[in-house]
Amino acid sequence: xxxxxAIDGPAAAGKGTLSKRVAEEFGFAHLDTGLLYxxxxxxxxxxxxxxxxxxSLEPEDMERDDLRTTxxxxxxxxxxxxxxxxxxxVQFQRDFARREGGAxxxxxxxxTVICPDADVKLFVTASDAVRAERRYLxxxxxxxxxxxxxxxxxxxxxxxxxxxxxxxxxxxxxDAVVIDTSDMFIHDAVAAxxxxxxxxxxxxxx
Length: 206
Ligand code: CDP
Fold this sequence. Notes:
Helix content is 54%, strand content 12%. By secondary structure, the chain is α/β, with parallel strands linked by helices. Keywords: ATP-binding, Cytoplasm, Kinase, Nucleotide-binding, Transferase.
């Protein structure tokens, strides 16, 4: 069976956790597409050309342990605005989305550009303050030296760049279900997402 769940939204809205849990719940594979841009950005910070870096990404590039830093996140959002970089990463994502057994992809343009025919589209969002606090706690817990102000600045800068770029800007697809997680526990957000996916699976199999 092929079944694609597209999950988009701004930085640190909870897409990662939500996507992982939805994938686990239904036995689908999960692709964090942000990692493709982060791995490209990391290679550029190390001196590579952006398009060359995106074209020659290897699985081990996605396993580097420095991909979660603010510097790499910023580099990711800069390379993500380059049309040739995005073009180099399209086919891999589309192939992943159409694999047998179902797939969940999270990113910024999954429901709009990568998989406009996805079976389910979710747009996960939360207030700036809530997203910054969550990301601050996550990075500090993982030993990163960050401040609340620095994290908030990174998120708002990247959101603006991601929303305003010409190629594949971050946007909710017209047919996306919007989940605002500002006042939700992760458990409730997962339950809401799971309900939408289950209803759709039922509808396509009836
Ligand atoms: O984890 P967080 O939401 O902070 O970021 P991410 O999903 O790892 O994405 C890092 C950066 O990659 C974003 O700020 C975007 O610029 C870019 N990105 C994108 O342009 N398109 C995607 N499908 C995924 C990420």
